[in-house]
Amino acid sequence: MKITKEQFQKEFKNRLNEKYAMGVEDASANELYNTLGSMMRAAYSSKWHHTWKNYLANQQKQVYYFSIEFLPGKLLESNLLNMDWLEVVEESLEDMGIDLKELINVEPDMGLGNGGLGRLASCFMDSIASCGLPGNGNGIRYQYGLFKQKFIDGYQVELPDDWLNNGNVWEVRKDSKAVNVHFFGDVHLEEVEYGKLKPVYKNQQMLRAVPYDTGMIGYKNEMVNTVRLWSVEIPASEEVHYRSIEERRALEDLTAVLYPDDSNEKGRLTRLAQEYFFVSAGIQSIVRYFKTLNVSIHNIHEYVAIHINDTHPALCIPEFMRILLDEEDLTWEEAWAITLKVMSYTNHTIMAEAMEKWSVDMIKRLLPRIYQIIEEIDRRFVEDMSLKVYDGKVVENTKIIKHGEVHMAHLAIIGSHSINGVAKLHSELLKTTVLPDFYSIYPNRFNNKTNGIAQRRWLQLSNRSLSEVLDKTIGTTWRHDPLDLRLLLNYQDDEKVLEEIYQSKRKNKKRLADFIEDHSGIVVSPDAIFDVQIKRLHAYKRQLLNLMHIIKCYQDIKENPESKPHPRVFIFGAKAAPSYTYAKTIIKCINETAQLINNDPDVKDLIKIVFLENYNVSLAELIIPAADVSEQISLATKEASGTSNMKLMLNGAVTLATLDGANIEIRDAVGDENICTFGITKDEVYDYYQNQSYSAVSYYENDPVIRRVIEAFIDGTIPNIYHEGTEIFDSLIRYNDEFFVLRDFKSYVEAQEKIEECYKDQNHWRKMSLRNIAHAGAFTSDETVKNYADEIWHIDTLPNYGDEKGLE
Ligand code: CR1
């Protein structure tokens, strides 16, 4: 999609005039942003149309990625990059006296996800389009995204994220593609013709699902795929039933909010209804499209792959069965064989509380026909297993319905041909520890697909200065093929290159330091070590371990005022689920410790703590390029993969890591000498569990350093945390420190000392940093989605993709 400066400027002015009857000088940043966005959309719409026309003409097999979360962040800049418009637009706007950055600033950060899972889905969407693969997203158009976080007196306060307030230039409402979704009512099976049972419904509630499509533009390849997000409305025929505003509101609530909790939601019924709503709407629209191909429904698996991203869309399985059975008149056996070939599932966590279960009563009431189908899937599974060699215990452990609950992961596994984890260790644990019975039943279904990140957003766009150094040093091929970042290894002894990379890092640190000063009033020096932990606040991620180390450093300085550690800025970004009190307690403690340390003259600016509010994709784009140290310190076995570890490495940060999730693969890629690992291993963790031999209190009693740190929480050293400090103390000592923080404390401190030592030897540090960048190409989501495409979805690019980039 090429455009010249002259064309752009002319068209831009015309459009601004047409939209707002204004000239450039009178327009606000928002008006300019909307003008640019709508102009871009007009420009890629024909490619978008072409892309799906080509898929249709070739009867191309497509994947539909069902995810209850997508976390794209801002789209303006990445769309410009992928359209190959970025430079021309930047320069053209500048000629007109407009700074592109100001337009980027007014775009709302689209936050329809909680964290890693949603962001991964968005990286995949970018990569699928950029690799020319036929794939689409399917999700929910939440009216409110993940809450906005504010700190008041050090406490997290949640505010609504009304992101649609000023409209959304990227989406297209497709009224003609709306479908109806049914809830509640009574259902019974009637013999409509001899031997054929059909469901008959009474008193159902019908809702309208209206799709809003967003184009996913491939990187300079002229392809545009679709993410389809569904919004609820009241169908015209049903209007009479909902006369009061309250009644209407209750329905419209269905797609109003993203549940900001990965584990225990309130409003469970609404959440379950959300799950069915986007699943049913998505599958209906897939089947409707498939029918235009004029192919027998018996062959739908040759044209359609459906991916279940974590268990939230697991109802895909019974919903697809419902359509094949009730609407397409297939037999159970036929329908089941097809469903298995179509469905695949990714598990993203082994944390027990995040394993979804729904009460039988609730599913039965909300989705009576779907419940019948789940029951039948389960009945046949149990029958089948009992005929085979499996003992009763295996069957008991794997069935879908037990103790009045429906186990969604079991449904997803039984109904899919592929089950994958998101890093090598995690996939191994699924087989050996979390789901061993399923592994014994379906050994061939289990596989690994290590996560990846979109290097376009996480390097090309967010770190322009490093990108320029790379272009100058190793050429530009890395922009298409990130594995070429390896070429950088040829320059590890080149002082000039090392210096240039360092200067680019310093520039990014300066940019972040300015932001920190503007937003929190804290002054930090770009010459300090920027030590970064950015991720959701969760006990297993152990932000507490980080805080305890900071307190130790503080106590060391107080005790020994002459000590001269290298100055450090500890940077945090993290939201806690609103109902997760322990996580909120940790936020409060970090904030109060920051108050104490940042204002203590004895510290002489050797330590600063900065907890930036409202961590989101845009903030990550600012922090990551400025990081020196990447904190990946979860308890081994608990972090399925992590993806910020990959983003930070790609930007030259050195990882300080436990042997957890993808950290292990990062270590294998960069080698032991370019990463700092510490902490107990998975085997040690499981040994402790098995022998129940962990005693946190003994660390408290026997290690004076630990004792002094822990006491700071309760003895008034850190002010204003009377209750919170006690809660932390109790979690560690009374409740035996669930995530082995005290066990790993000493080795963490040692690892931190090693980091400091390496940093002080700048030449050494710069080499470590370079090697991290050079090896990060292995962690791109382009590679990850290609593996999904080949090994799970069995999809391919258009036959002529690459010559004509797949288009007419
Ligand atoms: C995991 O905790 C992983 C992402 C993406 C998260 C994290 O380690 O990188 O998924 N899981 O795979 C999650 O959000 C609900 O589960």
From TrEMBL:
Keywords of this entry: Allosteric enzyme, Carbohydrate metabolism, Glycosyltransferase, Pyridoxal phosphate, Transferase
Keyword Glycosyltransferase (UniProt): yes
The protein's Enzyme Commission number: 2.4.1.1
InterPro entries in UniProt: Glycg_phsphrylas (IPR011833), Glyco_trans_35 (IPR000811), Pyridoxal_P_attach_site (IPR035090)
Alphabetical GO biological process terms: glycogen catabolic process
Record flagged with keyword Transferase: yes
GO-annotated molecular function: glycogen phosphorylase activity; pyridoxal phosphate binding
UniProt function note: Phosphorylase is an important allosteric enzyme in carbohydrate metabolism. Enzymes from different sources differ in their regulatory mechanisms and in their natural substrates. However, all known phosphorylases share catalytic and structural properties.
Protein name, per record: Alpha-1,4 glucan phosphorylase
Organism: Vagococcus elongatus
